[in-house]
Amino acid sequence: MKVLVVGSGGREHSLCWAIAASPLCEKLYCAPGNAGIAEDAECIDISAENIDGLIAFVQQNEIEFVVVGPEAPLILGLIDRLDEIDVKSFGPSSAAAILEGSKGFTKDFCAKYDIPTAAYRRFTNPETAKQWTREQGVPIVIKADGLAAGKGVTVATELDEAMAAIDAAMVEGQFGDAGAELVVEAFLEGEEASFFALCDGETALPLISAQDHKAVFDGDRGPNTGGMGAYAPAPVMTEALAETVMQNIILPTVKGMKAEGRPYKGVLYAGLMITDEGPELIEYNVRFGDPECQVLMTLLMSDILVALVAAADAVLDSFDLRWRDEAALSIVMATNGYPGSYKKGTEIVGAELAASEDTVIFHAGTARGVNNELLATGGRVLNVTSFGPTVKAAQTAAYAAVDRIDWPGGFCRRDIGWRAIAREER
Ligand code: AMP
């Protein structure tokens, strides 16, 4: 098969790395890719959001299967356009990608299909939003309806903070159109986990669970980022709990989306809160998490390409996946200053040599300089990913690899996996 992966981050590098190992893959392209992806695929200079450009490339190069990494091209309708030209793909249509594109849609959908989630209201007027928020009291959660680059959620512990979040979104237009409508919802208490399932429109196949670290600094402090590290499996997600998530959340979603005329194909990523009353949905994403995908790909023993094609062909009901009976952990190395402003183009030395039998270095924001040196070009730059018999062993291997990389322009958290390691040591 001639395969195209769309995207340029660590998630896409791990997908390319896994797909390149498939005997089914004859030629692999990635648009636009990065310096690390270039080791596994031929990188094509077309941005992930240039839908016309991607379609032209697919037609000219007779691509037979397209795997879409990020949400933006899904919401822009790349899968619909590929369907029109009869090219197979992995990802939801734009009608199904609304599960990530509109939090209000997803909350109404959950209410209709009895999927457990926090109590909520939708608002298009700031005054009514404020009035209801005051009646509810704090803590409370304010969410922009649309895509806001991961910044659209405020968990407010003070009423002033909640009011400011409503004003910022609805009056000051902080998120543009994405914040013209808000969801205000009850605060859920518990431990968070990421749950992934491959879906084929009819049914779903669970993957292993993962946990990520959103805050920029150790101890889960500082502003939220796209993710500073992840590990899998998540010890909080026992087999019994995973079954509950499938029965109460994932399968009703797949059935409901079909009934709504928006059949869901691709990977469904449920952000969950494990509360005392059981798992509740915080949000849906319509693609793999980044860096969760990196740890999943490291642990997957089955052929990923065959699994993605099975999802596209709607034959997941007869499918099974095999995983290493180990833990994996990924550390994000980011440019100093991230998630605020940062300098581009600092040099990284030793990334190639840091890889070993149990460690893969996925690239997220890198490019080659004029002398082929490795340069940091983004906020999140490298994902040092290791596996081992325990989360602790994977963590030790990953930090040893981090320490072999010479990059004064970057930093990482030093406590990725702390929650799972504390459990292991109990
Ligand atoms: P989201 O973008 O919806 O995943 O929200 C970002 C983060 O805000 C989540 O990962 C949670 O840590 C937190 N969050 C969102 N909704 C809630 C809620 N209802 N209760 C508690 N925390 C929440």
In short:
The chain is of the alpha+beta class and 426 residues long. Helices cover 31% and strands 27% of the residues.
Structural class: alpha+beta
Largest sheet: 6 strands, antiparallel
Task: Note the overall shape.
Answer: globular
Separation of the first and last Cα atoms: 48 Å
What are the segments in which pLDDT stays under 50 over at least 5 consecutive residues?
none
What hetero molecules are bound to the protein chains?
adenosine monophosphate
Q: Return the average pLDDT rounded to an integer.
A: 97
Beta-strand content bin: 25-35%
Helical residues, percent: 25-40%
**Annotation, overall tally of beta strands:** 24
Specify the number of helices. 14
Radius of gyration: 21 Å
Question: What does the model show?
Answer:
The protein is α+β, with helices and mostly antiparallel strands. Helices cover 31% and strands 27% of the residues. The protein contains 14 helices and 24 strands. The protein has helices at 10-20, 51-60, 71-75, 78-84, 98-101, 103-112, 126-136, 159-170, 239-259, 292-299, 304-312, 351-354, 391-402, 418-425, and strands at residues 2-7, 27-32, 42-43, 65-68, 88-90, 120-123, 140-144, 153-156, 182-186, 191-200, 204-206, 211-212, 215-217, 221-224, 229-232, 265-275, 278-285, 327-335, 347-348, 359-363, 366-368, 374-376, 380-388, 410-411. The strands form six sheets. Strands 12, 15, 18, 20, 23 and 24 form a six-stranded antiparallel beta sheet that branches. Helix 1 (10-20) links the parallel strand 1 and strand 2 (27-32). The longest helix has 21 residues, at 239-259. The mean pLDDT is 97. The site of adenosine monophosphate has 12 residues, from strand 7, strand 8 and strand 17.
